[in-house]
Amino acid sequence: MAQSLAQLNAAAPAEAAAMLDGLYGHAPWIAERALADRPFRSVADLGQRLRQAVSEGDAEARTALLRAHPELAAKPDAPLGADSAREQDLAGLAGLAGCTPAEMARLQELNAAYKTRFGFPFVLAVRGPRGAGMTRQQVMDEFARRLDNPPDLEFEEAQQQLHRIAEIRLRDRYDAEPALGNDIWDWSEQLAAHSDPGYAEKGQLTVTYLTAAHRACAGLLSQWMRDCGFDEVGFDAVGNVVGRYLAATPDAPTLMTGSHYDTVRNAGKYDGRLGIFVPMACVRELHRQGRRLPYHLEVIGFAEEEGQRYRATFLGSGALIGDFKPEWLDQQDADGISMRDAMAQAGLRSEDIPKLKRDPARYLGFVEVHIEQGPVLYEMGLPLAVVTSINGCVRYQVRINGLACHAGTTPMNRRRDAATATAELALYVEQRAARDGDSVGTIGMLEVPGGSINVVPGECRFSLDLRAPSDAQRDALADDVLAELEAICQHRGLRYTLEETMRAAAAPSDPAWQQRWERAVDALGLPVHRMPSGAGHDAMKLHEVMPQAMLFVRGQNAGISHNPREATSSDDIQLAVQAFLHLLDDLAHAPK
Q1: Residue 223 exposure: Cα atoms within 13 Å on the Cβ side
Q2: Is 397 in contact with 421 (CB distance < 8 Å)?
Q3: How far is the C-alpha of 115 from the C-alpha of 508, rounded, in Å?
Q4: Which of 106, 297, 514, 542 yields a CA-CA distance of 20 to 30 A from 64?
Q5: Other beta carbons less than 10 A from residue 551's beta carbon
Q6: CA-based diameter of the chain, in Å?
């Protein structure tokens, strides 16, 4: 029988501790510390208090938790607790009943190697991100991957897995199944079945602008929007999927939300798409309740944001603010197909693109839900965060010229080495960006043209990407880095050329909309964490004409993104939907 929070909050200390026993194995000190914070506002709040209790434990206590964890299918007769047995059964691992002899031998080999390397058993939440269970092959792949981790990194990863196991056990005990999160997780899987040729055959997800896979995704999104109860669903002249859930009065203002459904090459399943699915699920809930908002809700699946097939990033959202550049239509992809022809083949009328420009006076603002695409929330153990600003960015292409000469005969103090100058600058960028705390700097492309193992590099070409939460901070960072480039080249007797290739203004969140997100997160009983976004988003484009604010959702696997291992959990998605519903309700009851 499921427990209730009211029972836990009212129980005597010993009884309450017993109610929490087994979430982290048999470690009563965790429950004792967490219970000091009663009453708990929600199951999510309880989970955060338990996690905090573990994090506040000393290294010896946290290590003991790992050492006490049962080995994963190590021996057929190894005793397992009820929770562990049920979890391993979901992954087909309990008692090794379903394992072939080869699988059993491989698991035992991995177990032994892991324990020898790290000093504790392999810890994995085998029920996975949706809670339905991982396959044995997925478990073994994860086992092998983590064997390569450095010990300090693996210790923290094992701790994170303990927290995920406890999170799933907690939702089971309190009957907190994330039904909406599960539906969105399933939508993500189904949409990811469509991928461009050359990638689909390798099991990789790639959906670029107006390919057959892209059009299939648009078709699925439109059908799901209709199923959710949207009143109007259609495609616009650039391929955006637009769904509108109408207010009771036709002249009501509109709240816009959404994100992009195209991907980078060999992508994850949640970048962009999560921001379409979350408001779709909210509309479905409103429709089921027969409820209308005092404003129209416009959910847009933006057709293009990544700039993969054509050099035209934010094409989908840019068209809505009148920032579609006509010259883009003449761009050709790698196969020589122009954007104009690709649009015509998809049944789109490029001549109608200017009509897409929205009138900002009719809009309340733009909000976007997005997977974080970084490690911050994962490491902090927080499922959600409120975005304070989308970082401003400036990019350069740089070329340093020195003198190519013989690597064996040229003394070290006589060299004009372009590569070592670049290396010196890279270290400065690292140090200077870190000084701000929330600036970042990256040399992501680096080339020594015509380089040879026995030649001092005479030329080095590289990219430079500098980002910060405000334009002033970004510009100060750029000024310092470029001054250092000048100083390094003067000191080393080198020349350089510099081309600025992109400059994007920071997009600070609108204070009123940011506060709505903050109230929504707090209403779930979660800590309100505020952070800037280092990545660019469609919200940056809408920011140019209307107020905007974003909500981040934690990524699993240390927050990796633009990678097949990009993931989130159905539990975190559920919280994002609940936060979005709260924001909609908050806005509905705002003073006129």
Answers
A1: 9
A2: no
A3: 47
A4: 106
A5: 26
A6: 82
Q: What is the mean pLDDT of each run of 10 residues along the chain (592 residues)?
A: 88 95 93 96 97 96 95 60 59 56 86 95 94 87 94 97 96 95 98 96 96 98 98 98 97 98 96 98 98 98 95 93 95 96 97 98 98 96 97 95 97 97 98 95 96 97 96 97 98 97 92 98 98 93 97 96 96 98 96 78
Contact partners, residue 412, CB within 8 Å, separation at least 6: none
- The DSSP 8-state label assigned to residue 471 in this structure reads H
Token pair 């399933």 is at which residue? 186
At 82, the amino acid letter reads: A
Strand 254-260 versus strand 296-302 pairing type: parallel
CA neighbor of 547 nearest in space, from 300, 302, 254: 254
Q: What pLDDT shows up at residue 95?
A: 41
CA angle, residues 95, 98, 99, in degrees to nearest 5: 90
User: Is the entire prediction scored with pTM above 0.85?
Assistant: yes
- 3-state SS assignment for residue 531: strand
Helix H segments across 92-211? 101-118, 136-146, 151-173, 179-191
Count of CB atoms within 10 A of residue 408's CB?
8
Say if strands 530-533 and 392-401 run parallel, antiparallel, or are unpaired: unpaired
* Residue 164: other Cβ atoms inside 10 A: 21
Question: Cβ distance 243 to 230 under 8 Å?
Answer: yes
Q: Looking at residue 86, what is its pLDDT?
A: 60
**Cα–Cα distance, 416 to 317 (Å, whole number):** 47
Burial string for 436-470 (b: 16+ CB within 10 Å, else e) reads eebbbbbbeeeebeeeeeeebbbbbbbebbbbbbb
Report the chain's terminal Cα–Cα distance, integer Å: 46
Cβ neighbours for 260, distance < 8 A, ≥ 6 positions apart? 272, 273, 275, 301, 302, 303, 304, 305, 306, 316, 317, 538
**Predicted local distance difference test score (pLDDT) of residue 97:** 53
The identity of residue 474, as a single letter, is: R
